[in-house]
Design goal:
mainly beta; 7-stranded mixed sheet; single chain; 4-stranded antiparallel sheet; 11 strands
Amino acid sequence: AECSCRRGGGLVQAGGSMRLSCAASERTDMLGWFRQAPGKEREFVAVNSRGGGNTIYADSVKGRFTISRDNAKNSVYLQMSSLKPEDTAVYYCVARTRRIIVSAMRNVDSYDDWGQGTLVTVSS
């Protein structure tokens, strides 16, 4: 499957909200998001497993970000609220056709299909 970001990204003030969306080219079990801040390694944000019913978040975004999906459109969304300057990063959607164990869901290497990334900048 291939991912492509459809909407979202840009500049927002701290405390604001933003919604990202991404579509996969085919039906996948796993859809999620990672991000990479300037000068830092790529890190896990959130992922949903359709078959397993698992939805997990990074501790840094829990309670502020919500991942959702529209299976009919093979799409995944990331609603981001109470944004902070440290949320500034390029956000990548990821897809994986088959489900993996929960302990592997946060690993960058678990995903072969990545979107092109969209830059989110949160100003203070």
